[in-house]
């Protein structure tokens, strides 16, 4: 499985998880200027911006550690 396929699979799994938690998926792979958001989901009056990271293990660190300050700023 190449990295593009892994990314799509991870986003698919995240989407199903969010839906099971009661979220409605507003958009996937949303682009604004130079930024891309994997998933935008909503539950009641909460809008969630989701960055999906696929990892086999935490050996190299937790997924949230790979969302860089630059990515957050975008």
Question: Gyration radius, to the nearest Å?
Answer: 13 Å
**Shape descriptor:** globular
Low-confidence stretches: none
Q: What is the H/E string?
A: HEEEH
- Which secondary-structure class do the elements indicate? alpha+beta
Beta-sheet strand percentage? 25-35%
Explain this structure to me?
This protein is of the alpha+beta class and 74 residues long. The chain has one domain (3-73): 3-Layer(aba) Sandwich (Trna Endonuclease, Chain: A, domain 1). The protein is built from two helices and three strands; from the N terminus they run αβββα. The protein has helices spanning 3-20, 69-73, and strands at 24-32, 35-43, 46-50. A three-stranded antiparallel β-sheet has the order 1-2-3, with helices on one face. A hairpin with a 2-residue loop joins strand 1 and strand 2 (35-43). The radius of gyration is 13 Å and the shape is globular. The protein starts with a helix and ends with a helix. 5% of the residues are buried.
Give the tags.
alpha+beta, Trna Endonuclease, Chain: A, domain 1, three-stranded antiparallel beta sheet
Q: What is the fold's blueprint, element by element?
A:
Blueprint: H1 3-20, E1 24-32, E2 35-43, E3 46-50, H2 69-73
Antiparallel strand pairs: 1-2, 2-3
Brief characterization of the structure:
The chain is an alpha+beta fold. The protein has helices at 3-20, 69-73; strands at residues 24-32, 35-43, 46-50.
């Amino acid at each position: 499985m190449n990295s593009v396929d892994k990314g799509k699979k991870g986003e698919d799994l995240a989407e199903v998880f969010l839906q099971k938690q009661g979220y409605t998926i507003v958009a996937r792979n949303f682009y604004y200027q130079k930024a891309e958001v994997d998933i935008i989901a909503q539950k009641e009056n909460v809008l969630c911006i989701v960055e999906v990271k696929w990892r086999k293990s935490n050996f190299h660190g937790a997924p949230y550690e790979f969302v860089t300050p630059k990515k957050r700023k975008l």
